[in-house]
Amino acid sequence: MSALLAALTSSSLAQRLLMRTRFPHRDHLHCAVSGGADSLALLLLARLSGTTTTAWHVDHSLRTGSQHEFSRIQDIAAALGSESRSCTVVVEPGANLEARARAARYSVLPPDVLTGHTADDQAETVLINLLRGSGTAGLAAMRHDQRPLLGLRRSETQALCAELGVEPLHDPMNEDDAFQRVRVRREVLPLLSDVARRDMTEVLVRQAELLRDDDDLLNDIATTIDVRDAKALAAAPLALARRAIRRWLANPLPPDSATVERVLNVARGDTPGCEIGNGRQVRRSQQRLEIHDIDVV
């Protein structure tokens, strides 16, 4: 047994944190490990759970020398008795860098990969989605399915790494105010906590959990609506009708609110059809709604 694995198994802090995680019951856990404290804690606690693990690292080719970061992760994984894999993607600098990097990352990771998002990430996501004008689905934020550390705080993952002598890699993007999430983390959340005189991370996480339950219930009820039945859709409670339409038109992302409202107008008989994007339209015929490709002349 390596010194790191011995220290991990004997750590009372690690044992306490593991009790607050939600690792799925699988024979093998795939963990996305960037080298930061959160993802390293994910790998450490996954290994402590007794499950065979693989650490997956993605080099986004955004920083000079980033190709060498995997060697550090590889050493830690080996000390834990875990496998490790590295993938390289190319993400060009420019607009929407975070979103493009995330999409590129997930395109090469296993579909059931676990990530090290914490409660702090959850609170930031709630605020970012609020700034985007999201409804309950966005404000419900991230689900636990592939994020077993949502019950932990960032300070706790850092403390675990420090106790075990595992030094996290430094990502300068986490301090770059050009990124909205960084400003929310460093400016907005501290200000809200100061104004509220309480830890707003805990409040926002709890609100997300409540909204998630509400969102799930409304989505379940909305599935009982025959979205192609124009009369039934027009007569349904507005909140449910909107959800039914969003579910129907998701391709894979749900449509914006303006598109949903246009489809509702078709269902009500205000107009015979409307465009829904991507060269498609919804038309009403004999009280039925159907999706058609737009004829190109």
Beta-strand share of residues: 5-15%
Mean pLDDT: 93
SSE run: HHEHEHEHHHHHHHHHEEE
CATH architecture of the largest domain: 3-Layer(aba) Sandwich
Largest sheet: 3 strands, parallel
The computed structural class is alpha/beta
Can you tell me the overall shape? elongated
* Helicity, as a percent range: 40-55%
In CATH terms, what is the fold-level topology of the largest domain? Rossmann fold
Give the assembly state of these chains: single chain
Task: Pick out the low-confidence regions.
Answer: none
SS element count, helices = 13
CATH class of the largest domain: Alpha Beta
Q: In what order do the strands lie side by side in the largest sheet?
A: 1-2-3
- What gap, in angstroms, lies between the N and C termini? 71 Å
CATH superfamily of the largest domain: HUPs
Short description:
This protein has about 300 residues and is α/β, with parallel strands linked by helices. The protein has helices spanning about 5-10, 10-20, 35-50, 70-80, 95-110, 120-130, 135-140, 155-165, 180-195, 200-220, 230-235, 240-250, 255-270, and strands at about 30, 50-60, 85-90, 275, 280-285, 290-295. Strand 2, helix 4 and strand 3 (about 85-90) form a beta-alpha-beta unit.
